[in-house]
Amino acid sequence: MSQKIVPCLWFDSQAEEAANVYVSAFGNSKVVHISHYGEESAQASGKSEGSVLTVEFELAGQKFVGLNGGPQFHFTPGISFFVSCASAQEVDRLFEVLSKDGCVLMPLDKYPFSERFAWITDRFGLSWQFHVGSSAQKITPSLMFVQQLNGKAVEAINFYTSVFSKSRIGNIVPYEKDEGEKDGSAKHADFSLNGSHFMAMDSGADHSTFSPAVSFMVECNNQKEIDHFWSNLSFVPEAEQCGWLQDKFGISWQIVPAALATMLKNKDPGKTERVMSTLLQMKKLDLRELRRAYEQKGSRTVLSDVGR
Predict the structure, then answer these.
(1) Is residue 94 one of the residues assigned to a domain?
(2) CA dihedral of 254, 255, 261, 262, whole degrees rounded to 10
(3) pLDDT at res. 306
């Protein structure tokens, strides 16, 4: 499937373990690729050379990346993953597997909005919502705007759909006046960005807000696309590093060339180390410089699929 926006999950050192748990829970799922820390990346992160760096995996056909980045960031309920299940039995099964050694935020039960629903954090701290319903995208990132961001969901949706092409705003359901939330705030909203479906809501609940532990990787075809997303999304200069940025709502994005995965999967460790060394010195990624590092003299491989 074509998926321009890929959720990236930041772990301390449990990315491979978590990917295996998630793959075991969902059908049509698999681990696709595991990369390891080389000398340069290990020195920069304080990790051991040869330890797992990233795990690419698919859940119900959707791409995810797990990253072992260290203990700096932790998951919060600010971003959860909303799973549409075909039956109450599927809700029960996913609840049983993923709530083990985790925490229940909303008990498994019947609710006015769903015949079977539960909201949990798993053993790694990642939040999931399970409900009975059909959706073209089985697993949907759900953004909850709380604290100082409460009431900003619709503004954020309008902003994101203005930045991404092929975007659409779906249903926006406001809170009723007797529900005790801010006037004009969204009880539920859905939207899509370049074909990837998202949900959003406002809440006065006392939850932690967004964390870089969940970021969204945007795969760009060329430098023009990288420049476009960087200039429109980056709002916190001190958060800019290695293609990462933070927007004005506190959500983290990674703006990367689609060809970076090809570069970093090359079997020549010299190539991958040169690319990684170059990347670690950048804030916004420069595709030309990454290509130069990859195609350094003595290399016979040329990336014909890299945009210029």
Answers:
(1) yes
(2) -170
(3) 45
Q: What is the pLDDT of residue 12?
A: 97
Query: Which regions of the chain does DSSP assign to beta strands (E)?
Result: 5-11, 30-36, 52-59, 62-68, 79-85, 103-111, 114-121, 127-132, 139-145, 168-174, 186-193, 196-202, 214-220, 244-246, 252-257
pLDDT > 70? residue 150: yes
Residues 92-110 pLDDT 10s: 999 999 999 999 999 999 9
Amino acid at 269: P
Distance CA 189, CA 170 (A): 7
Give φ, ψ of 129 to 5 degrees: -120, 130
Residue 235 belongs to a domain: yes
Q: For residue 142, is it within any domain?
A: yes
Which tokens is 141 given?
């990132």
Tell me, yes or no, whether 24 lies in a domain. yes
Residues of the domain holding 169:
79-202
- Residue 308 confidence (pLDDT) above 70: no
